[in-house]
Every structure is written in structure tokens, then in C-alpha cells.
């Protein structure tokens, strides 16, 4: 919408985006027996069947690519209500023709999400332990940064390009950015003591990540050995 149809008003945009949905509902009604069989017998399609269900995205992509190519030659022609509604009608016609494949794709996507969350639920205990230890490190180092900057005669940090003491919320932010090795640069250690502490926290963060991932993988392997039938194989 920003690149091709910036001049389209919200009313026309609402109509245009509703068209593929209406065409999809119409296609599902016309092929309701096939769609009902897919919904009543959910199963993750593997290999060629899944790829075939995804083929409907190719013509939709071609409609969008055609719009971009036309805009290079005649931007006012493309950036119009008629061109926008025509593009959405083409997409709607594609969805109408492949409504069963779209239904298969949606069912498969739902099954994949279900499988993912089932696997994630088995990692709740080690993930909670990891996050708890991670949070403790953040809080402990933030407290040290705050004490160092507020109860020392020297300045140890530069925040917003000003050398000053950190508040506790700023120390928490700096601790999270340091432990995760993001390093936004809005708060910078300027003394040797602060740099040493930040370096120690970075090392702790890297070690925690390595050991945490290793323990999560080991927990998953042990869970599979103890409960061999608790996870569903892919079709």
C-alpha cells in the first residue's frame, strides 16, 4: 500500500482487502465437500502435497510483482482506485480457483502451530529455570552498576552523551543490553571498573546461553527416552 497505492483511501482499501476473503468463502462454499473432508481429517501434508498446496502463492506473488513493474513505467496509472481493485479482484479470482489448496494450507499451518506449542510445553520447566537465572544475573549486575555509579566520587557511565550516575531503571536496561550482547550504545561504561564489570557480565551471558541451550537439548533427549510415544512424528 505504501509503495504502490499510497493514494488509495481507507474505504476503497477496505473493499479491496475484503474481496479475496469473500472469494475464499465463496470457493469454500462451492467446494464445501472437499474442504469439509480436509477439516474433518486434519493431517500434516508432507512433501509434494504440501508444496502443491503452497503453489497458490505463486500467482498472487506475480500479481504483486506485475504491479511493481507497471509502476516503474506509469506510476499514476497503477496508483489508482481502478488498478488497486483490479489487482485485488485478480487475487480474489486466484483464491476462488484454489480455495481447497488454501484450506489445506490453513489446516497444515494450524497443525504445525499445534505441534510447535506441544513441543514448547515440554520445555516449560528448563525454560523457566533458564529465564529465572537469566533474570537474577540481570538484576544483580544492574544493582552493582547502580551502586557503583551513585556511590562513587568518580563517573563510570555515559548516558545520552552525558557522563553521570545511572538510575536503577537505566542500570536494568544497560544490564539487559550487556548480558544479551546487544550493546545499543545509549549507555557506555567509561571507567575501568565499569568496563571490567560489563566484560564479566558479557562472559556470564555467553556461558549461560551455551549451557542453557545444552541443558534444553539434553532435557528434550531425556524426555524422548522416557516418553517415546509422547511426540507425534511428521507425516
Number of domains: 2
Instruction: Please state roughly what percent of the residues sit in beta strands, choosing from under 5%, 5-15%, 15-25%, 25-35%, 35-45% or over 45%.
Output: under 5%
The termini sit apart by 38 Å
Largest sheet: 3 strands, antiparallel
Structural class: mainly alpha
Shape descriptor: flat
Account of the 3D structure:
- The protein has 235 residues and is mainly alpha-helical.
- It folds into two domains: 10-120, no CATH class; 124-226, Orthogonal Bundle (Helix Hairpins), CATH 1.10.287.70.
- 73% of the residues lie in helices and 3% in strands.
- The protein has helices at residues 10-30, 32-40, 48-54, 57-73, 75-78, 81-97, 99-121, 124-150, 168-179, 192-226, and strands at residues 157-159, 162-163, 187-189.
- Strands 2-1-3 form a three-stranded antiparallel beta sheet.
- Strand 1 (157-159) and strand 2 (162-163) form a beta hairpin.
- Helix 1 packs parallel to helix 6 and helix 8 packs across helix 9 (168-179).
- The longest helix has 35 residues, at 192-226.
- The chain starts with 9 loop residues before the first helix and ends in a 9-residue tail after the last helix.
- The model is unreliable at 231-235 (pLDDT under 50).
Q: How would you summarize what this structure contains?
A:
By secondary structure, this protein is mainly alpha-helical. It contains ten helices and three strands; from the N terminus they run H-H-H-H-H-H-H-H-E-E-H-E-H. The longest helix has 35 residues, at 192-226.
Amino acid at each position: 500500500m505504501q509503495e504502490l497505492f499510497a493514494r488509495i483511501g481507507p474505504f476503497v482499501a477496505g473493499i479491496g482487502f475484503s474481496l479475496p476473503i469473500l472469494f475464499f468463502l465463496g470457493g469454500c462454499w462451492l467446494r464445501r465437500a472437499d474442504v469439509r473432508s480436509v477439516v474433518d481429517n486434519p493431517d500434516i501434508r508432507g512433501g509434494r502435497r504440501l508444496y502443491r498446496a503452497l503453489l497458490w502463492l505463486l500467482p498472487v506473488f506475480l500479481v504483486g510483482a506485475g504491479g511493481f513493474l507497471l509502476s516503474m513505467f506509469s506510476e499514476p496509472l497503477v496508483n489508482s482506485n481502478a488498478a488497486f481493485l483490479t489487482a485485488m479482484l485478480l487475487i480474489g479470482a486466484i483464491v476462488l480457483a484454489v480455495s481447497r489448496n488454501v484450506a489445506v494450507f490453513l489446516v497444515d499451518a494450524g497443525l504445525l502451530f499445534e505441534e510447535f506449542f506441544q513441543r514448547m510445553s515440554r520445555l516449560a520447566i528448563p525454560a523457566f529455570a533458564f529465564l529465572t537465572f537469566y533474570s537474577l544475573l540481570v538484576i544483580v549486575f544492574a544493582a552493582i552498576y547502580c551502586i557503583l555509579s551513585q556511590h562513587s566520587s568518580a563517573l563510570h557511565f555515559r548516558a545520552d552523551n552525558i557522563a553521570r550516575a545511572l538510575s536503577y531503571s537505566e542500570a536494568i536496561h544497560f544490564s539487559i543490553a550487556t548480558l544479551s550482547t546487544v550493546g545499543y550504545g545509549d549507555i557506555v561504561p567509561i571507567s575501568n571498573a565499569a568496563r571490567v564489570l560489563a566484560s564479566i557480565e558479557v562472559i556470564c551471558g555467553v556461558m549461560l546461553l551455551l549451557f542453557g541451550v545444552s541443558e534444553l537439548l539434553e532435557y528434550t533427549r531425556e524426555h524422548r527416552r522416557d516418553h517415546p510415544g509422547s511426540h507425534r512424528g511428521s507425516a
